[in-house]
Amino acid sequence: MLRHAKSDWDAAAADDHGRPLAPRGKKAAAAMGRFVAATGLAPDYAVTSSAVRARTTLELAMEAGGWTCPVDVTRRLYDVGVDDVLGLVAESSDADPAVMIVGHQPTWSDVVYTLTGGSVRIAAGTLVGIDLGIESWNNTRPGIGELAFTIPPRLLTDGDLDLG
User: Fold this and answer.
1) pLDDT tens-digit readout, 44-68
2) CA-CA distance, 67 to 65, in Å (whole number)?
3) Cα separations (Å) of 75 from 17, 54, 63, 85, 159?
4) Are 118 and 112 in contact (CB under 8 A)?
């Protein structure tokens, strides 16, 4: 799971759906993309919210990390609940063992809690890995996941770990 990076609240977007990334968000998205590549976490398939800030986060991450995969852009990850997200994940192809979803708070924290029982603060641009331990995506259910990692972008863009 990837939460969209920091958005630009001062941009002249027509609405929330059209709000772009802030410069800090662009830097974080690129750093996260390089981290994904360097750690071998590139997904086999990605699905992103159609909101500009989510789409741009994924695009910048892929470009900076030099990784590619099929991508679906959908409004089904914008302003939705946990059941909507789990339903969308359950539709993923079993031929894709690693799926990345890109979306928004507060839903992302709720999804983590529903899948793992753990409470995690998901700051803008944070990458969360969940091991579901299933053989088919359609077996995605509450309580089956194990939190594998949480990587906020500040770990990658501040101090000695600067990847940008």
Assistant:
1) 999 999 999 999 999 999 999 999 9
2) 5
3) 10, 11, 22, 11, 36
4) yes
**Of residues 56, 92, 94, the one with CA closest to residue 76:** 92
Burial of 40 (0-12, 13-18, 19+ CB in 10 A): exposed
Q: 111-120 pLDDT, tens per residue?
A: 999 999 998 8
Q: Using CB atoms within 10 Å of the CB of residue 143, give its burial: 0 to 12 exposed, 13 to 18 middle, 19+ buried.
A: exposed
Reported pTM: 0.93
Residue 88: is it exposed, middle or buried by C-beta count within 10 angstroms (0-12/13-18/19+)? Answer: buried
Residue 128 has which token pair?
């969360």
Instruction: Tell me whether strands 45-49 and 71-74 are parallel, antiparallel or unpaired.
Output: parallel
Work out the average pLDDT over 82-105.
97
Residues near 24 by Cβ (< 8 Å), separated by ≥ 6? 5, 6
Query: Residue 38 contacts by C-beta under 8 Å, 6 or more apart in sequence?
Result: 65, 163
Superfamily of domain 2-161: Phosphoglycerate mutase-like (3.40.50.1240)
Pairing of strands 127-131, 146-151: antiparallel
Residue carrying the six token digits 């972008």: 153
